[in-house]
Amino acid sequence: VFLGMEKLVVCPYxxxxxxxxxxxFPWAGGGTSQLAQWGKLFSNSIEVYxxxxxxxxxxxxxxxxxxMTTIVNxxxxxxLKELQEKPFAFFGHSFGxxxxxxxxxxxxxxxxxxxxxxxxxxxxxxxxxxxxxIKSIPIDDTRDEDILTYIQILGGTTSELLQxxxxxxxxxLTFREDIRVLxxxxxxxxxxxxxxxxDITCFNGSEDKPHDLEAWHDLTSGDTSxxxxxxxxFYLLEPSNEIxxxxxxxxxxxxxxx
Length: 258
Prior knowledge:
Elements: H1 2-8, E1 9-10, E2 20-25, H2 33-36, E3 46-51, H3 68-85, E4 88-93, H4 95-111, E5 117-121, H5 132-135, H6 144-154, H7 159-163, H8 165-183, E6 199-205, E7 224-229, H9 239-254
Helix pairs in contact: 1-3, 3-4
């Protein structure tokens, strides 16, 4: 498991005495660099884990995950002991929101474990019909140019990175593979079945395309709250928004009465 931990978790700011761990899930095509740096912005009561998926960074040589179940199983098996020993919260952006939801659902169904708070960003509720268009993108037949255009519209990728052929190739590959994983994920919410009891907070960029957020209400008996921050899909990379997110997440975790 230690090896698994080394591969999966990036935690540059270790806080042995933290009251809670915030586990951060990356966006499609994303790595760990931005969210791992959040560790230094939080107080000592919160330790930040940024998750590194196969096929990127130090896991470049590993094959990409083929489906959401593979990712969920790896994250759960590596982190189970950590998640059992101390309270945890999840933060996911975009593709990361769906991943964090899938992991939370698995933890709840199989181990009766639940995050004290689920923070989702730039994502539809997982049972929403709004997800269907993404699920029907013919990912193998979509040209690189079209994917590149889409990545540029979303933002969050520096133009320098796109100038470098090798980096650009790898970003395109990673993005395709992450979308492919998202297409294998499905969640049908049964009538009257409320999977969670934790609070859920949804963040969104004001200029991003609207996401179906209301449907997150149906997934928990806890409170659901919604915040719109200035900017596009990658609003969270703006320093002022980052400060807001850190403060807000801290307040929610500290108010959870740990």
